[in-house]
Amino acid sequence: MTLPEIRPASACRFDAVSLGEVMLRLDPGEGRIRTARSFTVWEGGGEYNVARGLSRTFGLRTSVVTALVDNELGRLTENLILAGGVDTSLIQWRDFDGVGREVRNALNFVERGFGLRGAMGVSDRGHSAASQLTPAGVDWDHLFGTLGVRWLHTGGIFAGLSESSAETAMAAMTAARRHGTLVSVDLNFRPSLWANGADADGTDSRRARRVFTELAEHADVLIGGSTDFTDRLGIADPVLDGAGTGTAAADRLDLLAQRVLERFTGVSVVASTVRRVVSASVNDWSVVAHDRTGARIASTRYDGLEILDRVGGGDGFVSGLAYALLAGLPLDVAVNYGTAHGALAMTTPGDNSMATLAEVAALVSGAGSHVTR
After folding, report:
1. Which residues of the chain are modeled with pLDDT < 70?
2. Where are the domains of the chain?
3. Architecture of domain 13-364
């Protein structure tokens, strides 16, 4: 493995910081949004979930850079963040105008899905406080230099909220790497965040490719799938150009990852979650990672994994991977920690895992779902 040297814990206030939006997730349980009469409330967000997993499951010191409106919903979100063990000192608070005309807290309504009915999310996040973060709004040198951070995580969801959020992500990553902080980026693409474009499906693929390319240029660890690499980063598809050994998905992903490493010379590790959806309730789940030594690391496969709530599985992978790498474990072990944690995260409701480190370690070592007494 060829990761840059990770800063020692003794020199840093935080082991990891996430930059992203934290939403209130409203969950109708086994029912549907359109027929719900009550919701369970969780907190969640693609980038935030990584910090939350690192804190609650793995016991690391984490914080989140985000913004919330100072009203009852914002304070509820803060309360949930605190319950997850994540530091809230970096939250920026915005005044509430009584209605939410200019700035709001983001909401996310999520159905879990079951069997042939897939999961579904309906977000209500326009004009959110996090989307209005700016590069100058945070003293990045104080955060990464004076306080010290070992690992920064951000991604395509936060960068897709607005032009200023994309610029904020670039500023954060630039400062982080300047101070020796490792940077991970998840290329999460959500079509709804790139709407109102000229493409046939209504998205703005040109702007998305520009932003995602800049994200990849600032990453040490890059998480994404085949479509992210071809459509968002513009990597030539080996199946289409005849370089592939066949059309097998594994061959294609391996060649794409190699091309990502060739193009983005600052990236040390490329990791891809591999999910085959049998139904909303059963998935095959695994991870493949590549590094600059040419190594290909394939995780333990969890075929026929029974899913309660698939949202957050990928974020669970990233937090498990980051934990193990921060602990100095080799990449093959780290990939399996991430894969196991992601699998466990999908067996409980909400975005975030309810697993313990001992449970993750047991699954990595081969222990299954036997009764613990």
Report:
1. 1, 197-200, 202, 241-248, 367-373
2. 13-364
3. 3-Layer(aba) Sandwich (3.40)
